From TrEMBL:
Membrane protein topology class: Multi-pass membrane protein
Domain of life: Bacteria
Source species: Streptomyces nogalater
Renumbered residue ranges of the record's region Disordered: 261-314
Family matches, as Pfam families: PAP2_3
Sorted UniProt keywords: Membrane, Transmembrane, Transmembrane helix
Limits of the Inositolphosphotransferase Aur1/Ipt1 domain: 53-241
Places the protein is found: Membrane
Segments of skewed composition (Polar residues): 266-280
Protein name: Phosphatase PAP2 family protein
Transmembrane annotation, as ranges: 85-103, 115-133, 175-194, 201-218, 224-242
């Protein structure tokens, strides 16, 4: 025989995510991200110093892959133009597309993936604020970099000053290079495609997308190699923080949704007492004495005779 739970003792479970609660949350985080990028701009001298420091470290470690890639993208338009489109577009298209796909087709994995993404984005925002960094394309030309976004701006919708649409470059923080969330978010997409895609094609895309994105951000002179490394590190920290964050949210949810325990029987309730007895003044149907029964004699009161007994004349 199947067992049933006693009403009022069920464990409160989190409901399935709903788009009308998820969408405002994601928009709020992205709004904070954008606002933080805007607030972080201003210290141009410090940003340039940080960018040059990264460049010196890379040269000392022989890690400065940006120069050869940037020269290649500058010389070969058939590489530079698609790279600029990749940089200006996919960051804002693929990431939300993966979120929607998880929400609709891989719901059990959605919460963990979303928490990982949001936690990493907040960490990146802290990096933008504490360490404004001038990207290679904005350094003096003597450092050997060409801004491919400006060189090929006639091919796309972006302006020469940023990857934003023409006329809106002044609304972005161009010194938010460290860490590279282009690389970080691409890594997030790649991991989820590899884990949950289910086909060989999605696994290939899961590897190709973050690798090509890392090459693109360096070849277009938007990020240093160490920016890409920092983007990977930020996603790693966000990945480690996601489980405790989810547990904290679950505890909060359980506390808020905890049902009220029912009152124990026999605890002195004024309505029903223990066993089959009834409280004073209460009668159970079919057990009341009818005034037509012999036991209801002339001396029986109206109370003993039941509710239907006539009131004695006074």
């Amino acid at each position: 025989m199947p067992q049933t739970e006693t009403p009022g003792t069920e464990v409160a479970l989190r409901p399935r995510p709903r788009w009308w609660t998820e969408l405002p949350l994601i928009l709020l985080v992205y709004g904070c991200y954008s606002a933080g990028r805007l607030l972080a701009r201003g210290d141009v001298a410090g940003a340039v110093d940080h960018g040059l420091a990264l460049l010196r470290i890379e040269k000392a470690l022989h890690l400065n892959a940006e120069h050869p890639l940037n020269r290649l993208f500058t010389r070969e338009a058939w590489l530079g133009v698609p790279a600029d489109f990749w940089y200006a577009s996919l960051h804002y298209l693929v990431t939300p597309a993966i979120l929607v796909w998880l929400f609709r087709a891989r719901a059990p994995h959605y919460r963990a993936a979303r928490t990982w993404l949001l936690a990493s984005t907040f960490i990146g925002l802290i990096g933008f604020t504490l360490l404004p960094t001038c990207p290679p394309r904005l350094l003096d030309a003597s450092h050997g970099f060409v801004d491919t976004m400006a060189q090929y701006s006639s091919y796309g919708w972006w302006g020469g000053e940023a990857s934003a649409p023409r006329g809106m470059g002044g609304m972005t923080n161009q010194y938010a290079a460290m860490p590279s969330l282009h690389v970080g978010w691409a890594l997030w997409c790649g991991v989820l495609l590899w884990r949950h895609g289910g086909t060989r094609l999605t696994k290939v895309l899961g590897v190709v997308y973050p690798l090509v994105t890392a090459i693109v951000v360096m070849g277009t002179a938007n990020h240093y190699f160490l920016d890409a490394v920092a983007g990977v590190a930020v996603m790693g920290v966000g990945y480690l923080l996601a489980p405790p964050l989810m547990r904290a949210v679950e505890r909060l949810w359980t506390r808020m949704a905890r049902p009220v325990a029912p009152a124990a029987s026999g605890s002195g309730s004024p309505i029903v007492s223990a066993g089959c007895q009834t409280s004073a003044g209460e009668r159970i149907p079919r057990q009341r004495k009818s005034r037509l029964e012999p036991a209801a004699g002339p001396d029986a009161s109206a109370t003993d005779a039941g509710e239907g007994a006539p009131t004695p004349a006074r």
